[in-house]
Structures are given as structure tokens and as C-alpha cells.
Amino acid sequence: RQIPVREKNIVLIGFMGVGKTTIGQLVAKKLYRDFIDIDVEIEKNEKMLIKDIFSKYGEKEFRRIERETISDICQAKRCKVVSLGGGAFQQEEVRNVCLENCIVLFLDLSWDRWKERLDLIIESRPVLHNRTLEEMQELFNARQDAYSKHNSRVQTDNLVAEEVADYIVETLK
Ligand code: S3P
């Protein structure tokens, strides 16, 4: 059976630190839906912080856990707003399961704007540690394809979180 649009999860994707969690929480509130942050879900299930999963088990194992968590949530739950970690959409299986079951929205922030927020972003993001700014930009650029392919894009450069959330709610009507 096809899932009716109003029952589908709304999934927010985009690079680390673009505001997926903040905006997701606002959208959920406006639509009277529950909000699920996949990273928080993983930390709850594993009883460990993401950065500790990275340092103890490595990125490959983190990606396996991430893929399974997203698969479970996107197939079993409905009517939620879900934010994914910034690397999740690089996995084909994640893309497929989300595109089949959910409405996927890409929160697009330009590199220049992103760079201004770096100090706030870096601490909790192990993927950024030990990278030069130039290497971070390479990663940023390399991921844009997977984010923008097949997904609706919301340009957020000149909007505050509340405005992005209002825009999303409007476009879903
Ligand atoms: C990651 C992004 C993080 C988290 C992990 C890896 C990535 O999520 O899943 O640190 O590879 O981009 P946020 O995008 O919520 O920071």
C-alpha cells in the first residue's frame, strides 16, 4: 500500500550544522508531530555519545548503526519529523529507504555562511576533527550531490530557523 502524503515522515537532510535539529523541532511543533533526531536515537540505543562511538568502534560501525536506525524508523514510524546526521545520505540504502517512505527536504546553506558558524559546529563533530578548512570545504562540496539529487531544496542563507520552518510548513500544504 502506498503511504498517503499526510502520513509520511518528513525527513530533513543537509550538512552538519545547517540547523536540521533546530528546524526539525520547529516544524514538528507547527505540525503537531513528534520529532526524532537520528543521532539522539543512536546515542540512546547505544548508551554512548556519537563521538565515543567513532573513537571506540570507528566510522564504519557508526555508519552501520546509523543505517539500521534510519531504516527502522523510516519504515516503522509515520507522521514524524526526522532529522538525519549529515553523512547519512551518502549511503545508498539510506537514500532508498527515505525516498520510498518519506518526504525528504534538503536544508541548503552556502559554504560562506556555514564557515561563519564553524566554531559552534566543530566540537561535537568527530568527522571534522583533524581536517583543515580546505579539507572541510572538500567534504562539504563532495556531499552536495547526494543531498540535492531527487530532493526538494530549501535555501536557508537569509532566513532564521523560524522562517525556514514556516516555509517548510507552507510548502507541504
Ligand atoms: C556526521 C554528522 C553528524 C553525526 C556524525 C557524523 C557526518 O550529524 O551523525 O557526527 O558525517 O556529517 P549532524 O549532521 O546532525 O551534525
UniProtKB/TrEMBL annotation:
<feature type="binding site">
    <location>
        <begin position="17"/>
        <end position="22"/>
    </location>
    <ligand>
        <name>ATP</name>
    </ligand>
</feature>
<keyword id="KW-0067">ATP-binding</keyword>
<dbReference type="GO" id="GO:0004765">
    <property type="term" value="F:shikimate kinase activity"/>
</dbReference>
<dbReference type="GO" id="GO:0009073">
    <property type="term" value="P:aromatic amino acid family biosynthetic process"/>
</dbReference>
<comment type="function">
    <text>Catalyzes the specific phosphorylation of the 3-hydroxyl group of shikimic acid using ATP as a cosubstrate.</text>
</comment>
<comment type="subunit">
    <text>Monomer.</text>
</comment>
<dbReference type="InterPro" id="IPR027417">
    <property type="entry name" value="P-loop_NTPase"/>
</dbReference>
<dbReference type="GO" id="GO:0005524">
    <property type="term" value="F:ATP binding"/>
</dbReference>
<keyword id="KW-0963">Cytoplasm</keyword>
<feature type="binding site">
    <location>
        <position position="143"/>
    </location>
    <ligand>
        <name>substrate</name>
    </ligand>
</feature>
<dbReference type="GO" id="GO:0008652">
    <property type="term" value="P:amino acid biosynthetic process"/>
</dbReference>
<feature type="binding site">
    <location>
        <position position="86"/>
    </location>
    <ligand>
        <name>substrate</name>
    </ligand>
</feature>
<keyword id="KW-0028">Amino-acid biosynthesis</keyword>
<protein>
    <recommendedName>
        <fullName>Shikimate kinase</fullName>
        <ecNumber>2.7.1.71</ecNumber>
    </recommendedName>
</protein>
<comment type="pathway">
    <text>Metabolic intermediate biosynthesis; chorismate biosynthesis; chorismate from D-erythrose 4-phosphate and phosphoenolpyruvate: step 5/7.</text>
</comment>
<keyword id="KW-0808">Transferase</keyword>
<dbReference type="InterPro" id="IPR000623">
    <property type="entry name" value="Shikimate_kinase/TSH1"/>
</dbReference>
<dbReference type="GO" id="GO:0005829">
    <property type="term" value="C:cytosol"/>
</dbReference>
<dbReference type="Pfam" id="PF01202">
    <property type="entry name" value="SKI"/>
</dbReference>
<feature type="binding site">
    <location>
        <position position="63"/>
    </location>
    <ligand>
        <name>substrate</name>
    </ligand>
</feature>
<feature type="binding site">
    <location>
        <position position="21"/>
    </location>
    <ligand>
        <name>Mg(2+)</name>
    </ligand>
</feature>
<dbReference type="InterPro" id="IPR031322">
    <property type="entry name" value="Shikimate/glucono_kinase"/>
</dbReference>
<keyword id="KW-0460">Magnesium</keyword>
<keyword id="KW-0057">Aromatic amino acid biosynthesis</keyword>
<keyword id="KW-0547">Nucleotide-binding</keyword>
<feature type="binding site">
    <location>
        <position position="125"/>
    </location>
    <ligand>
        <name>ATP</name>
    </ligand>
</feature>
<comment type="similarity">
    <text>Belongs to the shikimate kinase family.</text>
</comment>
<keyword id="KW-0418">Kinase</keyword>
<dbReference type="InterPro" id="IPR023000">
    <property type="entry name" value="Shikimate_kinase_CS"/>
</dbReference>
<dbReference type="GO" id="GO:0000287">
    <property type="term" value="F:magnesium ion binding"/>
</dbReference>
<feature type="binding site">
    <location>
        <position position="39"/>
    </location>
    <ligand>
        <name>substrate</name>
    </ligand>
</feature>
<keyword id="KW-0479">Metal-binding</keyword>
<dbReference type="GO" id="GO:0009423">
    <property type="term" value="P:chorismate biosynthetic process"/>
</dbReference>
